[in-house]
Amino acid sequence: MKLKWEKNSRVMELVSQGKIDFEDVIPRTKTELFPFEAATVRLRRVRDKRPFVTVHIRGKATKSQWGGYYGPTCRVNFGGAWQGTPMEHMDSNGQLEQGLTWLDVHKVVEKTKLALGFTNEKEKSNKKDEEENSTEEEVGEEEVGEEEVSEEVPEWHPLKEIAAFEKRGWSS
After folding, report:
1. Annotated domain spans of the chain
2. Torsion sign over Cα 118, 73, 96, 57
3. What is the model's pLDDT at position 69?
4. In whole angstroms, how far apart are CA 142 and each of 81, 112, 139?
């Protein structure tokens, strides 16, 4: 699926940094004029560290009896911050094209987050904790000589779960 970006100052900065291609930038327009069979990113509060992001995923175009075109559109919203704390959740609304899956949506969202430099603050703190714990365990083993005890919580891999559901005949 093609990923397009609606033009604004933040998007042009991403182009200058080489994070997105200039060819993927479209002029500011109405959402009804966003390209069909593509995902288009619209940003709000572009000067904030974490702008609000809406990804419009449009399906195939169908000609209406009045001469225009329409198609299913699914919108995914994420980003922004509340009282200085980054919001880590997202929501969706609208209709997802029948030929697309939530895995396709996930890939578009991850590509968008990567370009914008969004990282999960929880993941950052978990990595920092793991580094500190590994240093403490190494020191503890040298001094005391105890065996390493692992109380790790298994990681959740949603993409693997989606693939498993689809293998069993479930459609996403």
Report:
1. 2-119, 122-144+153-167
2. negative
3. 85
4. 44, 45, 5
